[in-house]
Structures are given as structure tokens and as C-alpha cells.
Amino acid sequence: MNRTHVTRLSVSAALVVVVALAGCDGSGGERREWAAADHHGEQRNRAQVAGTAEPTEDATLVEVTWRQNCAVCHGLGGKGDTQQGQMLRVPDLTRPELAQVNDELLVATIRRGRNKMPAFDKLPERVVVGLVRYLRSFAR
Fold first, then answer.
1. What residues make up the domain containing 76?
2. Residues 13, 17, 18, 20: is their CA dihedral positive or negative?
3. 17: in domain
4. Could you tell me if residue 101 is inside a domain?
5. Which of 20, 44, 57, 131 is the most buried (most CB within 10 A)?
6. Rounded to an integer, what distance in angstroms lies between the CA atom of residue 23 and that of residue 11?
């Protein structure tokens, strides 16, 4: 490398740093903490999951259950686009065809499992019903 090339690289690197720092102006504008849902563009809140105006304890349980047990394969948004989901070929729960599946079959699938999906037979009934509502919200 000649001296001109090294100088150009140095100027380019300095310019990248200046541009990056310009985005961190520290002006104190409104800021909020990053949440995992931001990554997936989800705007769903717990009240929507429960179908009520106010978040409820059941809605919180449903959301936590989904995140801890289901999202590993099905993804936060139900698309099955996680590494585990792709490996297991889980269905995309956002497909319109899901609307044709009755609630009883969905409850049975959650309770008994299906193919590589484990059974979640110890979940309280209200959480299972909430998970079905949660699944239904993906198609909206």
C-alpha cells in the first residue's frame, strides 16, 4: 500500500466515525428502552391478547408462556422463522388457513403436542384458551 492509499483509508474511517457520532447527538430527545418486540415490529400489547381494554393477569401469563415455550420454534410473530422452527419445519401460524382450524383442535394440539411439538398438558385452561386467542391474532 502506498501512502496515498493509507491516507484515503484513514480519512474514510474518520468520516465513518463522524457520521456515526452525529447520530448520537445526545440532544436528550424522547428515548425509550429497546424491547424484543421492536425487532419483530410487533405492536401487540397484552390487552389485545386478552381481548380486553386493560391488561390482565391472564394476558400476562399467555404472553410469558408464548415467549418461553412457543416462540423458540414459532417465533414471536408466529411465522416459524426461527432457526429451530426452520429446522423442525413448523407451520407459519400467520397463514389465513389457520382461521379454518377450530379452537378445539388448537387446544388439543397445545395439550397433546403434534409431530415434534411437545405436549403442554400442565398449562391452566385459561392460558391454553389465551394461547388460542394469541394464535388467532397473528392472522389479523
1. 42-138
2. positive
3. no
4. yes
5. 131
6. 19
Number of domains making up the chain: 1
CATH code of residue 97: 1.10.760.10
Tens place of pLDDT per residue across the chain (140 aa): 556 544 554 544 444 443 344 444 444 445 555 555 544 444 444 344 444 445 567 888 999 999 999 999 999 999 999 999 999 999 999 999 888 999 999 999 999 999 999 999 999 999 999 999 999 998 76
Query: Cell digits for 58?
Result: 391472564
Residue 130 inside a domain? The answer is yes
Buried b (16+ CB within 10 A) or exposed e, 64-80: ebbeeebbebbbbbbbb
**What is the C-alpha end-to-end distance of the chain, expressed in Å?**
57
| Sign (positive or negative) of CA dihedral 48, 56, 63, 97 | negative
